[in-house]
Amino acid sequence: MTAAEKLHQLIQTLPEDQINEVLHFAEFLQQKQQQSASANVIPPGTLTGLRGIVKHREST
After folding, report:
1. What would the pLDDT profile of 15-26 be if each residue is shown by its tens digit?
2. What is this structure's pTM?
3. Is the separation of the CB atoms in 22 and 12 below 8 Å?
4. Which domain holds residue 44?
5. Residues 6 or more apart from 1 whose CB is under 8 A from it?
6. What's the average model confidence in pLDDT over 46-50?
7. What is the DSSP string of the chain?
8. Exposure check for the chain: N or C terminus, fewer CB within 10 A?
């Protein structure tokens, strides 16, 4: 059984308010993943790219 299938089974046993909490957390994780993926894209040769390089260097 996959993790998605286990999660689906578990959610069937939860009350609606807890299902909403699970949903909000999953949406948070999805948003976090999308933000980290877009943060890694730095267009080369542009002012935006240079700013991205500086931000990246400051964060390390």
Report:
1. 999 999 999 999
2. 0.56
3. no
4. 3-59
5. 9
6. 64
7. --HHHHHHHHHHTS-HHHHHHHHHHHHHHHHHHHHHHHHT---TTSHHHHHHHHHHHHH-
8. C
> Measured between alpha carbons, how far is 39 from 52 in angstroms, rounded to an integer?
8
Query: How many structural domains comprise the chain?
Result: 1
Query: 17: which 2 tokens?
Result: 């308010």
In angstroms, the CA 60 to CA 55 distance is 9
* Whole-Å CA distances, 15 to 2, 11, 33, 40: 22, 8, 27, 38
Neighbouring C-beta atoms of residue 19, cutoff 10 Å: 14
